[in-house]
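agent> Task received from the user: take the single chain below, predict its 3D structure, and emit structure tokens. No templates, no multimer pairing.
agent> Plan: (1) validate residues, (2) run structure prediction, (3) serialize to tokens, (4) report one or two observations.
agent> Step 1 OK, no nonstandard residues flagged.
tool_call: predict_structure(input=
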Amino acid sequence: MENENEFDNYPVYLGGPNPEGGIYMIHTQDYSDKSTRHVYGDVYMSNSPDTFKNLVSESKPRKWLVVHGEVFFNPGAIELLKKDPEWKVIEHDEDMIFEGIGEEEWIGYRWSDVRWQRAAKKVGIL
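)
tool_result: status=success, residues=126
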């Protein structure tokens, strides 16, 4: 890479409590490399070295974000959690993933970005 600071303006979000999961780019269908996997709808994820090199090129996807870490559930665990009244389940929403990133940064014990606010409103918390 010619300039070591090329990635300075690209935030990395916490993707889950398992840091061994690595770093992933969550993105729209208009990007693909050898590591790309379909998640749902127009949401995909990739994590090859080329994935991150392409973020600073014209080959990057229309919408994307970079996350570090993963979360894993044992088979059947999600179905059990859905029955727990403490858990709130909403339908997937691609805009909630890709829109609003960096629109607001709240300080203290408030929501960290607009995506969390949207999810909380959908389940009636806010």
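agent> Step 4: summary for the user.
The first strand starts at residue 12 and ends at 14.
agent> Done.
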